[in-house]
């Protein structure tokens, strides 16, 4: 069996028999800018009204022109949040819970599938899967959506956090605010945390079995996916039993593009190894060059080291750190109140000019 096929099938197994079980809670953020519902859902042009906010954006690349999928939710002239999904190769679907929080606060947000992801074009060309090209893609999306320093907030989680940092380091003059969620500034440091901290938290016999399969590159072994599901994902990716994972998350996993994911991230779920192109990525020496207001979000049970992310916030001149104590890698689901209250308050503080580094 081809490794790509196995990886894809393991995700389907991983996400079967699940039910939607999101916690619903009302945030208690600061006052919004008093947009009425009519104003919030009044799209600025007829095309967006006709498509329900969906726009396929042409993207120029060294290998020709392709299109990426976006969907704008709401309309606010000063608070527009572009969501960068993880993976690489995942989809916008894991952010569908934002529907329950942002509209009632008057915050416009834009779903976006990066090139290669399910709702966008999916060229099969590994030369396109570079950080530099993805950064250029985000800039083209920004331009097409008329986002600028008066309204543009960039949210990136996991791989999207890498992309958000890289975008800010190149184009921060275009940003009003930046959110780096559940992503460290160094893959080598992430690998170290995975092996020295997360691995030893597993039962010794389970860790030994997983490491043996990784050593032998036996990723096609169904036992590999089984152990990760039972002992790793429900502790550090989303802290709910597998059969209670939200339908949107499972759908996003089913729609993931394994070609992009494996080329950049690799097969291992304990760090990044092998020939994966992100293996040596590190911005610890540059993170302080980000000057725009920034929120760094970490979680106590994350695959990423929350202490490292707190350090990141201390390095960025105008930043704050939000810890989700009950959360893991997808803290928008397993620590929703903390995650969304902190995120909404940050956006509104920046919008009102009240944001101050803690």
Task: Walk me through this protein's architecture.
The chain is α/β, with parallel strands linked by helices. The protein folds into two domains: 90 residues, no CATH class; 212 residues, Rossmann fold. It contains 13 helices and eight strands. The chain has an eight-stranded mixed β-sheet with strand order 1-2-4-3-5-6-7-8, sandwiched between helices. The N terminus is likely disordered.
Percentage of β-strand residues: 5-15%
* Averaged pLDDT: 90
Name given to the CATH homologous superfamily of the largest domain: Alpha/Beta hydrolase fold, catalytic domain
The class by helix and strand makeup works out as: alpha/beta
Number of domains: 2
Instruction: Summarize the biggest pleated sheet.
Output: 8 strands, mixed
CA-to-CA gap between the ends?
52 Å
CATH topology heading of the largest domain:
Rossmann fold
Q: State the strand order across the main sheet.
A: 1-2-4-3-5-6-7-8
Poorly predicted runs: 1-27
The radius of gyration is 19 Å
How does the overall form come out from the CA principal axes? globular
By DSSP (H or I, 4+ residues per run), the number of helices equals: 13
Overall CATH class of the largest domain: Alpha Beta
Tell me the layout of helices and strands.
Blueprint: H1 3-15, H2 37-40, H3 46-51, E1 54-61, E2 64-73, E3 80-84, E4 108-113, H4 131-144, E5 152-157, H5 159-171, E6 177-181, H6 187-198, H7 204-215, H8 222-236, H9 247-254, H10 258-264, E7 294-299, H11 306-315, E8 319-324, H12 331-334, H13 336-352
Parallel strand pairs: 3-4, 3-5, 5-6, 6-7, 7-8
Antiparallel strand pairs: 1-2, 2-4
Helix pairs in contact: 1-9, 4-5, 7-8
